[in-house]
Specification:
alpha/beta, Rossmann fold, 10 helices, 46% helix, 11% strand, binds magnesium ion
Length: 219
């Protein structure tokens, strides 16, 4: 094995914590005059967001109606989300330790289904960018996981064959089945939303264990 390619949200990025911290800041700074119950707003945001599946124009426009927010438009709240979320981006626990351990031995890449340049900015917010040789965001290349072509593009940018790469991600379909069908080995990251994935070569419930798990599947 010569390369390890990662998903971003809930794999390298602790998206839930990053989002909750961002929302606390947005509530306190922009929305305080309009909200009696900030906790209710945050909890409804998380529900409408559906783990990132729904883009925030829809989320904010529903929230403006439901909480009768006057004074900010959907476009204004969205613009602040797009430009400021990255300042709250934090890695999952154990990620920095794992990357430091594996980066001398493998070429590292990222494939994220998401908006550009939003996801690139969030990735840079994690301050791990210098370790990565390939960063691919779906909207920028007009391909999305689980399309095999996006996995092959990442391998091509890293100069490896699919059989020489491992893909690490938290979504059983777009990450694990997509990468497997493209010819890569796979490591699944369990979460509350998807606790199990039988299609993966291995699972990694604590990121600091990743180097050891990589050894077992590539050894
Ligand atoms: Mg993910």
């Amino acid at each position: 094995m010569r390369a390890v390619i990662f998903d971003l949200d809930q794999t390298l990025l602790d998206r839930e914590k990053s989002l909750l911290d961002f929302l606390a800041w947005q509530c306190e700074g922009m929305l305080r005059p309009y909200l009696d119950d900030q906790a209710a707003f945050v909890s409804r945001f998380m529900e409408l967001d559906a783990n990132g599946a729904v883009w925030k124009d829809k989320v904010y426009s529903a929230l403006i109606d439901e909480f009768q927010i006057e004074g900010w438009s959907c476009a204004e709240l969205l613009a602040v989300y797009e430009s400021c979320f990255c300042a709250f981006a934090v890695p999952r626990s154990g990620v920095l330790e794992a990357l430091n351990a594996i980066s001398p031995h493998y070429k590292l890449g990222i494939i994220s289904n998401g908006m550009t340049p939003f996801q690139e900015r969030n990735f840079r917010g994690l301050e791990i960018a210098s370790m990565f040789r390939s960063v691919i965001v779906s909207a920028a290349v007009n391909l999305r996981k689980p399309d095999a072509a996006i996995f092959h593009l990442a391998c091509c940018e890293l100069g490896v064959r699919p059989g020489e790469a491992v893909y690490v991600g938290d979504n059983p379909v777009t990450d694990v089945e997509g990468a497997r069908d493209a010819g890569l080995r796979t490591i699944f990251i369990p979460s509350k939303t998807h606790p199990i994935c039988t299609a993966a070569d291995a699972s990694c419930d604590e990121m600091s264990r990743l180097p050891q798990i990589l050894n077992t599947i590539t050894g």
